[in-house]
## 1
Amino acid sequence: MPESRTSESRMSGSGGPQGSGPLLEVSGVTKTFGHGRRRLTALDGVDIQLGRGETLGLVGESGCGKSTLARVLLGLERPDAGTVRFDGTDPFALRGKELLAWRRRVQMVFQDPFASLNARMSAADLIGEPWRTHRDVVPDAKAREKRVRELLALVGLRDSDAHRYPNEFSGGQRQRIGIARALALDPDLIVCDEPVSALDLSVQAQVLNVLSELRERLGVAYVFISHDLSVVRYIADRVTVMYLGKVIEHGATEDVFERPQHPYTSALMSAAPVLDASRVSGDREIQLKGEIPSPFDIPSGCRFRTRCPRAEERCATQAPPAAVRDAPGAAPHTALCHFPLAAA
Amino acid sequence: MTTTAAPSPAAADIPDNTPALDVEGLCVDLSTPSGQVRAVDGVSFSVRRGRTLALLGESGCGKSMTALSVVGLLDPAAEVTGGAVRVRGSDTLRMSPAERRKLAGPVLSIVFQDALTALNPVQPVGRQIGEPFRIHRGLSRRQAHEKAIELMTRVGIPEPRQRARSYPHQFSGGMRQRLLIAMAVALDPDVLIADEPTTALDVTVQAQIMRLLRDLQDEREMALVLITHDLAVVAQRADDVVVMYAGTVVENGPVREVFAAPRHPYTRGLLDSVPEHAVRGRPLPAVPGSPPELSAVPAGCVFQDRCPLVRERCVQERPTLRASGDGRSAACHFSEELARA
Amino acid sequence: MPREEPTTADTTAGAGADTTTVGTTAADTRDTTAAGAPDTTAADTAADTGADTPAGAASSPHRANWWRMLGRDRAAAVAAVVLSLVVLVALFGRLVIGDRAQRQDLDSSLRPPSLGDGVYGLFGTDVLGRSVLARLIDAAATTLSVAVPAVLCSLLIGSALGLWAGYHGGRRESLAMRVADVILSFPSLLIAVVVLYVFSPSALNLVLILAVARIPVYLRTARAEAAELRSRLFVDAARTFGTPSRSIIYRHILPIALPTLLTVAALDFCFVMLTESSLSFLGIGIQPPDVSWGLMVAQGRQYLQTAWWITVLPGLAIVFTTVSATVLAAWVRMATDPAQRWRLTLPTKRRGASAAVPPELIP
C-alpha cells in the first residue's frame, strides 16, 4: 500500500520535467564560515551528481565538510558560490509555496538519534510532525493515524510504539523513528548523515537493512554520509571521498575500493581495521603522518600534501589536476592528484 | 599489523605464569528507577603481562562498568557486590581506599574514551602529566615537569617543551588521547586498561593511536585490557577476547580461534553483521531485537530473546560458562551444535 | 537483590522473530521491563500503551497520571495545597471576614497572638486593635491582585520577545536586547516612584509599572534558552520539513524553555510583592485603608521590638507563598519532561543517587 501512494503522490506532487537528467546536481559549491582572517573553508568547489534511486556514499574524516554539504543539500545553509540543481531547479531560488513543495522531496536522517528527536513528543507526534506544516499530504486525523501505523510497520516498529516517548526507545529504535519521519513526506532523496555510527553493531545491521529495503520498495535515493568504509561499501553505488572541503576522488564503489587512485583514499582504507586478518598484509599499510590540517589554514597546492607519502615539490605549488581513469561500463573514476596510484 | 595476534616475545620471558590482573566472579549492582539491577554478573578473566585481552560487547553490556570496578572508579549509584580483583596477589576489593590509591598508577591505570573531559581544562597539560610523579614518587615540580616532557616526547607530541605549557583544548582529539596515554603509562603500570581509546577519533588517527599503544605495551611489558565494541580492532590487536552480553561473559578464548569458529550464537551474530563480509544488495544477517534492559534480563539464557537456536531448555536454565579444554569456553547449551554447523 | 521474573508469555513472544520484525521483539522486551518494575506508574504506562489506542489519544495516558505524580512528591503536594489555600483565601476570604480587617478596637491594641481571644485574636492585633488574621486575609486579595497580573504580564511579553529574539538572532536579537538594557538601566524603583507620583497611584498603574520593570528578566532568560535550543538537531530536523519559525518556537522551543521561565516567575513573584510593599511604604503603592502583605510588613516595622507578630506573620505569608510557588515550578519542570518524569516516582532520598546513572542505563 505505501508503494502505490508513494508513486501517485510523486507523479502529482512535484510537477516539472521528470525522468530526464540526474536527480541532484551540485557543481562548484563553496561555503565558508566566519570572516576576516578567521575564515573557515568548509566546502571548496564541490561537485556531486546523483541519479534517481541511486545511493551515493560520501566518505571522509572529521572536518572534511561532509556534514556542511548535507546541510547545503537540505537548504539549511546557503552556499557562497556554485549551484545546486534538484531535478533541474535551484532550491535556493524558490520562495513560499514552491520552496515548501521542494522541501517535501528532500529529507534527512540525522546521526544522533537522541538529539534529533524532541524528547517531549511521542513517536506518533514526531513522525507526523512534517504533516503539521504540509497539511495537504495526509488530509484528516484518521488518515494520519493510519499512515503513522504504516510508517511504523515500514521501519519495523509496532503500532503501540506510537504512544511512546523517545526515552522509552533504544538507540536503534529511535533511529527507525527518525527514518519514518523522513519518509512521512514521500521524499525522492534522503540525506543520511552518519545514520548508524551511533548504534551498536548488531543494531546497525538492522537499520542498514531497513534503509536498503526502503530503497528497493520506494525507489528513494540516498546521499549516505559515513566515516565507516565497510558500511559505505555495502550500501553505496558510487563513492565520493572528501578531504578538507574538496572532493578528491570519485567513482563507482568497486572501482574506488578495489583500485583507489588517490593516496589518501588508499591510506584511509589501509588504516581502517578489518576483521579478516588474511586481508591485511603488512606492506600494504600506509601510516599517515600527523593529523588533518586546520580548515582555517588549508595547505597550498594539493591540500593532502602535508600528510602524503608520495608528496613532491610540485604538490606544494600546483593544484593537482583531475586524473580520470575510465572504468568499463561505469561512471568515470576521477581523482585529484599529481601522482595517482596505478591500478594494481 | 600482523605481529599482534601472536604472543609478544616479552611475555615468554616472564618465568612465573601468575596473571598481572585476575578478575573472578565480579558482580556489580546498580540503583535504577526500577530498583537494584545487576549490571555485571559473575565476570571472570585474567591477563598476563605483555598480553592483550579484549573485553568486547555492545553498549550497556557491562564492559565499562567492569573496567571501572577494577580501577575502583565506580559511580556512587553502583556497588560491587561480589567477586575478587587480584593484582600482585592481593584483592583490591578488600583494600582500604588509601591502599587502593597507592595502586592507581604504578600497578593499575586507565585510559578513557573522552580525552577532553578526562583532562583538567584549566591546568597546563605538562603539570597534569607530571602529577603522578609528584604523588607517587615525591618528585619536585621541576623534576616532574622534566619527566612530563620526556613522556610527551615518547607519545609523539611535537615540540613537547613548548606544548607542555598549553591547555587541553589547544590540542586536537588525537593529541589529547596521546596525552592521556602518557599520563596512564607514566608510572609503568603492570596493567593498562583502555576504555574505548579510539572510538571518538578518525580512522587515520585511530591507527596511529593503536600503534602507539602497541609499542608502549611491548616496551614496558604491560598487560593491556582493551575495552571496545569494534570487532575489527579486536581482531587486529588482541590476543584473547572476552565477549560480554547483558552483564555476563558469553564466550572467551584466543581471538583467532573464537573469531574463526565462534561457539556462542551471539558472537556468531556479531561477526555476521559486520558489513565487511556482506554482499551488496543482500540483506545483512542482523541479530534481531536489541539487548535486554538490565532490569529485565531473562531468568534462563540471557540471549534467548534474540537467539536463532533457542529451545525450551534455554528459557528454563541459564547456561554456565563451560571450558572446553582448549583455552576456550562458552555459555551456551548448544555450543557443540554451533561449532558443527 | 530483587530480580523480577518476566512472564513467559512476553519472553517467548520475542523469540524466533526474523529480521523484518525486529522491532516487535525489542518492544516485547520493553513491555516485560515495565510490567515487572515495582513502581506502579511504569506499569500503568505499559498497560496504557500496550492497548491499541488510536494515535490521537497519544499523550493522554501520561497526563492522567499527573495527580498521582503530585501525590508522590510530598514537597510538591504541600506546596500545591498551600498555594490553593492562598488563592482560595484571596478569592473568598473577604466574604467571610466582612469588615473585620478595618474594625478598630483601641482597647485591645497590640495584643499578642493567643488562643483565648476568639478566632480573630488568634494572630493578635495591631496598634489600632485590628485583627491581624483578618488583615492578612484581606491583604491576600490585594497582594495577589497586584502580583499575579504583574508577573503574568511580564512573563508573557518578556518570554514572547525573548524567544523570538533568541531564535532568529541577528538584528532582531540586538534590538530586543537593547530594549531590555534600556529598561534595566533605570533603577526600577525610581521609575516606579516617578511614574506613580505623576499619575495617580492606582492598583492598575502599579501592575503596569511592575510588569514593565520585570520584562527584561524574562526576555534575557528566554533569549538565552532559545539561542541555545536553536542549534539543536531536532530544530534542524523541523526546518528540513519547512516548518515556519513561529511553529518551531511554539512546538519545540517554548515547551522546553517554559519550565525555566516558570521558575524565574515563581522567584519574581516574591520580588514583585516586596517592590509593591516598598512602594506602598513610600505612600505611592496600595493606599490605606486597603492593605497588602508588603504594606503590613512595612507598617509593623516600628513595633518590631514590642509586637513582632504584626511584621513577622505577613512576612511569613510572603515567604510561604513564594517558596510554594518555587517548589511547584521545580516539580512542573520535572513532570513535563518525559525523560525526567520517572524520578518523581522514586522516594525523594534516592533521586540524587539515581541521577548519576548514565542515561543509556536507565530502563
Note: The mean pLDDT of chain C is 75.
## 2
Amino acid sequence: MIVAKQKPLSELTAMLDGYRNVLAVGCGTCVTVCFAGGVKEVGILASALRMARRLDGQPMSVAETTVQRQCEAEYIAPLAEGLDEFDAILSLGCGVGVQTLAERFPDKRVLPALDTTFMGLPTEQGVWEERCQGCGHCVLDITGGICPVSRCAKQLMNGPCGGSQGGMCEVDSDTPCAWQLIWERLDRQGLADRLLEIQPPRDWSTSRDGGPRRIVRDDLRLPPPEDV
Amino acid sequence: MMDQLLAPAPAAQAPAPARRFKSGSNLERMLAAGHFAVTGEIGPPKNHDADVIRRKAALLQGCVDAANITDNQTAVVRLSSIASGAILVGQGLEPVVQMTCRDRNRLAMQSDLLGAAALGIRNVLCLTGDHQSHGNHPGAKNVHDIDSIQMVRMVKEMRDEGLFQCGEEISGGGPPLLIGAAANPFADPFELRVHRLAKKVAAGANFIQTQLVFDMSRFREYMKRVVDLGLHEKVAILAGVGPLKSAGMARHMRDKVPGMVVPDGYVARMEAAVEGVAAEDKTARREAWRAEGIRICIEQIQELREIEGLRGVHIMAIEWEEAIRPIVEGAGLFPRPAPEA
C-alpha cells in the first residue's frame, strides 16, 4: 500500500491561512488502511482545524467527505457538485490523490494534508516499513525477495557495505541491513552462492532518472473516436 | 563456481600490447618487487588551504610508498581528493585518490578519473562511501548510481579495454590507474566478507586496503579464508592500522563506529597508559596516550607481518600524520626500499 502520515497541525493551519470554507476529502483506499486519511481521520482533522481557527479568532468552516478512491477521476467526479461554495480542497489522499483532484478541478486550490512517504506494509500494529520504490526494474528474483533499492540506504547491488554490523544498518541501528537479510534468506534457500555473481550497473532509466514514467497498454486503450 | 568467477574476463577485443605495469605507479612497482608495502593517509582540510596538504605530505614523504587522499571522508565536505592528489604529485609523494559512489554518478566518476590520470595520478581506491547522515550535510541526496564493485569493474574496463562504461571507446586508450578497493573483515555477516572480497578481485581490484585491524584473531581467521581461496595471489592485501590517540578514542571506536571491532584489551592498555599521571596535566596525559598508541600500532604491524598472504600495511593517522614516521621506523620498515624499475 501507499503509506502516508498527516502533516503537523501547525503546517496545515499556516497552509490554510486566509481560507474560510474548506472541503476536506479523505480516501477510502491505502490511506484509510494506514490510518492517515480515511473517514475517521478526516473527522478528527476537520475538528482540530475548526478548533484551531476558532482559537485564532479566524473561524473556518470545514466540510467532510471521503471518496472510495481519490486516484481515479470517476470516483472524484461527484465532488464537482457543490464545489463552488468552497475556496479550497484539503486532500487527505496520497500525492496521487491530491494531483488527481487538482487535475480534475484546475480552478480550485487543492492542498495536501498528508506527507506521502512510501510503498510499504505494516510490520506490527502502528508500524509501517518501506518495501518498494517503483524503480521500474524489479530485482527481487535475485535478492531473495528482499529489495536492496528500497531497503539499502546506499541502494547497493553487490552489498553489504562495510557499515553493516550485528545485522543492522550504519544509518540507523534500528534498521535491519537489507544485505544481511538477503544473505540469510538465500542461505536458508541454499542459494547463497548466487551472491558471488557480480551484478552489473543498473539501467536507472526505468526509475525516476528517466523522467516521469508512463505505461501505455495498446490492448486496453479505447480506439480513437473516428475509428468507432 | 568461485573459480569461474575469479577467472579473468575474456577480452572484448584484441588485447592491447602487453604493458609491464598496469599503471607504473610506485605502489604497483613496490608490490611487484615483493616488498612489504606501506601506505599512509592524508585527510584534506575543510578549506582551500593547499599548504595543509603540503605540510602533511612532507610528514609522510619517504615513510610511505603512496598516500591515500580521502574523498569527503565521513561525508564531510573537504578539499577535493583529486586536487589534493595533484598537489601531492607536484611534491613527489604518490597519491592514492579515494573516490566514493556516494557523491558521483558514472559520468562524473569517469570524467574525474580521466582528469586524475591527466594530472599524473596513478592509483585510485574505489569506495562505497559513508552515508551522508553521518556527515555535515545530512539532508543531501546521495547518488549510488553504481556500487563500489561495479566501479572497480568500470575502472578496469576503462584501463584495460579502453572502454567507457557505456561501451564506447576511449580514443587514445584508458587511464593507467592501479585499482584499489576496501575490505572490512570486521563488518557483518562475517561469512560474506571474504566472498565480497572475492567479488572485488573478480571485478579487477589490484590492491585492497582493509578497515583498521584491532581484533587480530578475527583478522587471522579472515586471512586464512582468503588464503584458502587463493585470493592473496590475485590481489595485494594491505592491512589497515592506526595509532590510538587516547583512551576516549579507543572507547569511541569500540562503541560508536559502525563496522569496527576494538577488543577491550586495547582500551584497557590506553587507560593504563595514564595511570599515575595527574588528571590536570593534560600535556603529560596526551603524550602518555600517544606514546602508547604508537607502541600498540608498531606491535600490531609486527603481528600482521607474520600473517600469510598479507602484502603490506595501510597506516591511517588522520590529523596525526606526525605519528607515521615513528611507526614506520619502529616497525623496521624504514627507509623504504627501491621499487622495481
Note: Chain A touches chain B at residues 153-167, 170-172, 177, 179-180, 183-184, 193, 195-202, 204 (CB under 8 Å).
